[in-house]
Design a protein that fits this description.
It is a single chain. By secondary structure, the chain is α/β, with parallel strands linked by helices. It contains 5 helices and 5 strands, in the order βααβαβαβαβ. It has 2 domains: 45 residues, no CATH class; 85 residues, Rossmann fold, CATH 3.40.50.720. It is 48% helix and 16% strand.
Length: 145
């Protein structure tokens, strides 16, 4: 798991927060499995509209693919304010992070609700998605935890 946010924190702090969240959501989880999962958590701080930061994300994903043999599969779970969706989706696409086929892995985009604040915003976001991703890659989350 690679956390990506504007917040400037260290990887150790991110892993500590992730561990707390896992233990809270799954208090009976096997401690060894939690430890293994947390050891595979990484964090990058970046801007939503920075090509350079998405290039760093791509490089990190490629390094982790080699380390963990993921087959190049990636799932992007976008849980940000709707006004950030367009920049994020364009950044993922421009960096080539959403391209399927080259590595054999799948690429999926999960977008938290709300998908735009009105019909006009939703249609605009839909056009950004249609221009960069296939229908099978997109999932809209209707449940926000």
């Amino acid at each position: 798991m690679i956390g990506y946010s504007r917040t400037d924190i260290e990887g150790a702090e991110f892993r500590k927060n992730a561990e707390k969240a896992v233990k809270k959501a799954h208090p009976k989880a096997d401690p060894a499995e939690v430890k293994e999962f947390i050891s595979r958590c990484y964090y990058l701080s970046g801007k939503y509209d920075s090509a350079e930061d998405y290039a760093k994300l791509k490089k990190t994903a490629e390094q982790l693919e080699k380390k963990y043999s993921t087959g190049g599969s990636l799932i992007f779970h976008i849980a940000t304010p709707p006004e950030a969706y367009e920049n994020i989706l364009k950044g993922i696409a421009a960096a080539g992070l959403g391209n399927e086929g080259k590595t054999g892995g799948f690429k999926r985009i999960v977008i938290e609700k709300p998908f735009g604040r009105n019909l006009s915003e939703s249609l605009k976001l839909n056009s950004v998605i249609d221009g960069s991703f296939s229908e099978k890659q997109i999932y809209l989350s209707l449940i926000h935890i």
